[in-house]
Amino acid sequence: MQQYILRRMFLNLIVIFFVATMVFGALRIDSDHVVRNRAQACTLDTYEGCVKAAREELGLDRSLPVQFGDYMWKLVRLDLGDSFFNKAPVLDQIKDRAGPSIELGLLQIIVAMVVALPVGIISAIRQDSWIDYILRIFAIALLGIPVFVLAVFTILATARYAGDIGLGFLNDWLGPHITWVDFFDNPVENLKRMTGPALLGGLGTGAIIMRFLRSQMLEVLRQDYVRTAWAKGLRERVVVFRHALKNALIPVLTVVGLLLGGIVSGNVILETLYNIPGIGFYATASIVQGDYPVVQGIVLSVAVTLVFVNLLIDVAYAWLDPRIRYG
Amino acid sequence: MYLEEQVPTAVAAPELEWALPRHPGALETALRFIRRKPLGAFGFLIVFFMIAMTIGTPKAEFGVPSLPSRPLGFELGQPWMARYEVERQFKDPVSGRLVQFEAPSWKHWLGVDKAGRDTWARIVYGARRSLFVGLWALALATAVGTTIGVVSGFFRGWFDTAMQRLMDALQSFPPLITLILIISINPLTSGPSLTVAAFALGFVGITSVQRIVRGVVLSTREQPYVEAARVVGATDLRTMVYHILPNITAAIIVVFSIGLGAVILAEAALGFIVPQFVPQDPSWGLMLNEGRAVMLDHPWLAVFSGSAIALAVLGFNLAGDALRDVLDPRLRLG
Fold this sequence. Notes:
The complex is a heterodimer of chains A (about 325) and B (about 325). By secondary structure, chain A is an all-alpha fold. Chain A has helices spanning about 1-30, 30-40, 45-60, 65-75, 90-125, 130-145, 145-160, 170-175, 185-220, 225-230, 235-275, 280-290, 290-320. In chain A, helix 5 (about 90-125) packs antiparallel against helix 6. The termini of chain A are close together. Chain B has helices at about 1-5, 25-35, 40-55, 120-155, 155-170, 175-185, 195-220, 225-230, 235-245, 250-275, 285-295, 300-325, and strands at about 55-60, 75-80. In chain B, helix 6 (about 175-185) crosses helix 7. Chain B starts with a helix and ends in a 7-residue tail after the last helix.
């Protein structure tokens, strides 16, 4: 097991090196437009002088290997560089914005599990009944409707129509707010801003998990030990929860890990729509501005998080299911 | 059952033909599909409708394919379903002022946008962009992904390990951020371009295509016929092209059809989230972005463009799922 973890750690480091190289290379393909943007604001006499000054200021005048070496050396010391625009260290800025994003992601996973668990179980133990069909059609529809369309429709419904039928408070809970309140300052106000995006993102993820859980449950329910449990005369509740669900849930863990990348992507849109100062919103803004160090830092930190969370899940997997042995 | 009937007549081979199971005709197959997979049939209905939306009279302008007006090498004219020209701005006949944000009526089925243009015409035109960008992107993703998947799964060894780590690296980028990143760096063309967008979408899709293909190849390469090919002395390339590739076609078709929905969704998301990086001709994502800005006063544009995106994605998902169940149920995941 220790050997397995060590090997995975080593492979993860290779993956992270690939990520760092790719994001560095991608941003250097066409760095001219950033330099041009920067040069427009300067006060020197000639345009060429401006461009040259801007290049030097951004450190883009050095040769690529030098830039790359510098970047990698800083990376080893966990220094992600400074932003091109406000000159603040990137790592600090990411730390400031990680809180809302992590909170949103966790809330979404909680919503997804709260929805997926009962729905997946009911759908599996009542397979091919009318309730199974209704739940599955509901899940397919949720999978088909993109999260940003769902968000726009929700905001429209709450802001424009909910007040007319006496549900005006919904707008307060599901609509976007202009200002941001941190969770530790005022939890209630913070949750008001989070419910909308957490529900919308969580439902979509929940639909995927529900479909997976259903097929896992169906498989486990056909196993011999479940038949034995029935034959012993155990109550349905005990068979379903203690014998079947426990075993069906383990593979679901992996799916949650694989979905994390999608959750971050979905949150890029949700954070923009709901004015949440998180990583996704910051990433889009930085790409649009051409703020290279910030983009590099965000992509890298998201990749590192995803890679290690997935390792953690795989380790937990072996711990939860003693049948699994990594060699 | 027919075995016992054929015993007395089992002399001449041609007479036995009646005893073989009848090959069902196309119509019969279609009807059976509708009966067994009603949701899938509904999905195909949406897909066919969307394809019908893109049809227009070809103009006599041939040239280098560009997206989406020259998807096949010749320029496509006005889509026949559109009713009005896409860029036509409607004016009030009495006052002569632009008709803005009109609600749906018989004249304008889905209303009119800010610049006085017919929403239905723009939705029809936008279907062309969604579909062709999706097709080009997925063609790229499938071609590259299949090659990587087959080679990686067939050879195993160090090449497989290195390739899979590289793919892991690509996959640990959040897809939407990668997309925005690629279309924002745009060295080949001066402005936003659909070709770059299609390339970016295809690039992001490579990882998932190759993962699925590799999985199928891993089981295919253990089949007796692959071993037989090797015994006969076929080269690796020949084994891959003539023995493995034909046997994973079903998987490739399924991956292609399921991927289309995801690519169309991503293209719309791009137009919605970074409208300045995509070309400004009619697109559902851009329309949803425009509609969102004014939706509290004029909800129709947001409602219709959003519904168009949702219906299209839903249709492709349903059709793809049904196709997978019919062609290759092994690929099912949840």
